Model the fold of this input.
Amino acid sequence: MKLPNIYEGDYSRLIVLPLALIFISIIVLLFISPIKYGLDLKGGTLITLQLTQPADEAAIRDALSAVGQESVSVKLYSNPAGEVAEIEMATDERIRAIDEEMDAFDKKLKEVEQIEIELAEQRGKYATDPKPEAAERIRQLEADFETRTNELISIAKSIESSARSLGVMDSLSGSKESRVLKNEVTELSLSAKDKYKENIMGALRGVTKYSTYSVEQISPVLSRFFIDKVIQMAVFSAILAFIIIFIIFRQPLPCLIVASGAVADIIMSMGAMGLFGIPLSLPSFAALMMMAGLSLDTDMMLTIKTLKRTEGTPRERAYEAFRTGFAMTTTTFAGFGMLFLLGLVTHISAYYQIGAIGVVGLIGDLIMTWCFNAVLVLWYSEGKLPKIFKFKK
Amino acid sequence: MKWYTNKRVVWVTILVVLLLALAFTRGINFGIEFTGGTRIPITLENPMTSAAMGELVETIKVRTTKFGLTQVLVRSIGDRQIYVEIGQSAPGLLEEIEKILRAEGNFEAFIDGKQALKGEDIILESIRGTSMVAGQENVRWEVAFVVKQSGVDRFGAAAYGKGGHPVYLYLDRIDNAVILVRSSDIENENFTSEEISAAINDVLELSNNSLVPIDRFNSTTKEMIKSANKSRVVVGHAETEVIAWLKSENISYIEKNSGRDVCGDGRCGQTESFQSCPADCMECPVDRPVKCQDGTCKATQEECAVLPPNWIIMAVLIVLSAILFVGNRRLEAAILFLIFLVVLYTTFIPKTENVQGTVINEMRPTFVKNEMEGLIVEEWPAIGLLSAPTLSKSLGSGNVGQSYQIEGSAPGASLEEKQAYAQTQVKKIRSILSGGALPTRLSLGSATVVPPSLGKEFLGYSIIGMVLCYVVILAIVFIRYRQPKLIPVQIFIPTAQMVSLVCILGSVGTLDLSTIAGLFASMGTSVDAQIVVSDELLARGSLSKDEIRRKLAKAFYIITRDAAIVVIAIFPLLFSNIVEIIGFVTAMMVGTILNIFITTQVYTAVAESSSQEGKGA
Done:
């Protein structure tokens, strides 16, 4: 099976395909179907029930909305152990409010305690050296302390009412002691979260029968942390990769060409993610980074072979690289394809996501490297690109 | 000389075989997605220092070991996450862990029987600890804190005239209880038994506790416990017989760590003949009291394994060495034999283990001499007593403000020892004063429970998938080249790579979901390097030795740069400390590096052998 030499004749027409795909991907991403975030990046709760009897999706939705949980997504499928119901919901507003209020409470508590410490110091000094200025300062501090303690108490009260709205029965004792308040408020917020979970599980128990279940909860703080990390890693990798490419090629234009191939591939993969509903989560992010690496691999192999070798014409070399690269991509495709199939069968989301991105990314790589990158490289080697980008040899 | 007798290929084969032996000896670890079990992820909302993290992990380990004889794995991931995994569904585990992590202890300070301070008196923000080197070799430590006005009055009253006396610091003080101890817990060769009983009685009286020895647990003991007429019993958690009796009599009890083994799978430690015991085992459990040569605990001596645990590796080494010797490769044979001798030596020499045990026997009191009261109990976690520093004379004179210090000088033989002691003291006292509260808030992810049957299914499917993938990839390679001569090489390289990769990842790391995904990806990319090299070799050009070497060099240039790019692209992910990603990344990176190594070695061997053949022809 010999691949046709696509670089004979007017190969420049090849670039139409990748450009069109990039354009379509951008349209899809921006207007039609933006990328969904996986649970770990958007926060929320995912409950997986291993059912012992088939369940009714509408019944589940109704039961949950009866306890105040709207915007629920329910998926029913079967895995090797039987039927499974997967219920995903966003973090309840009330829980989010409690988390924020707890943050505010902690901050205010620190302020209150700082003032107490200063008061203690001043009082100690006053005891040994009673100056009127010191007395004045003490009065000021005491007033400040009073104000802030009241602010602390009002935050505690709003935590109490948030907890009440979730069905918690306990209340604050009315003590003004900061330590006591802290303990009470912590108890309240924990009870609230427990109550919330009980409400949900109770609702589900009413409409489904299951043998085991697992609950995955990602708080907004945690998902923000993951997102930050993801961005950090992407930037870091990009910089490192670019440095390596530059070390290998030394000329800016080939570097740009190689990098553009990888970027184009990523855009196309993300477009496919948006179109087919593959969520962006931690495993799929790792897979995207890997695709970038593999894409760079084939781009580099092509560029090295075409630019740095001397036998035959550039077109022939590009063709040779094409044959090698095609075989490389096919085997990698087999690997990820298997993983994707496995993910479909077992419903293991990590396999499914990584496999899907692998498959999509590799198809994109084929098109981008050999129709986009190769064309650019051939233009460069045949002198059709502006010379301003070349360093003096 | 055929390519497979080339010494490079021989070494690659030896490497693979050794890795296989390693995997067989250590066993392959599977993640709980495949073995089944419960996993509780704990995420801290602010990062902790590794020291604080280590302490937290130890506390959790110690408190969860009471969940029976199965292994509880607690691991920290980076500075923000802790995973608790247990190999079966454990009802109550989640609640227990929540309790541990959220528990804020009740702090009290007592001077000569009077309560001097309560937890709510202390301003948390103000607690500061320092240690410094004073003079030549002395290390002093100090913990300073500020007390609210309410505490000042209380403290003043209790401290008046008590300069030089100990201040007993309690966290969750236990009162009105019977404490069940063994004589071995109480005896101390440095002090007389009169001093010891006086000290213990003092501290028991304070909280209306009493002591009953349980060296012999018979009807007399049971009578003593009942007639003491206290509201509950404090007992070491390894005293399973006693606990069973307490349960049957409906007597309420509190379990404290008693340091007797808690290792569920037969590990035990801290005697000379033990190989590599984990730090949290002290002795063998009561139902398997025999300590075997190989470091496991068995019920009777006969059950001890006769062969040492790494006999497989040793056997493999000897056999390989013999084969090489017969095959006329004296040098390699000698090297393998040397490795065998080293392994033999490390297996059989007696080890003087100085295992740093981090499990404290909470039933055991520590004593110290106090100038005012003689011998006192300084620390006895069984009743909640955690420290007993001395009250300074100035505070005892009644002049009390709101700022206090607890200080002391560190004992020890060397400067390092003293500094280590000082740091531990400071940490301990700070933690006591703040009620053991954690410095950061947590979100407890809920337990993921994977039933073992489901896990096995997943594993089965994954293995089938991998085998299929392997076959498909090989098929693609054969179809492309149709070169019968190259087929053995093209089978050997991916096989060697996959086997080594699985063995390394499985025995040193864990095969969890993301690692297996990485294995698939690695399998897919492993043949890439081969394809590049084969294409170069089979391209036009003569087959002279120089030409081959040049072609190989060009091919290797490409594949090493390619490997570098992939490794660099995913390298930052290693530092993400996110479990879902790390397995995948590790598998890819190790796989890529292994692949480059094996591919280059084997192809160089092929080149060397074919050029020699060319010459001879």
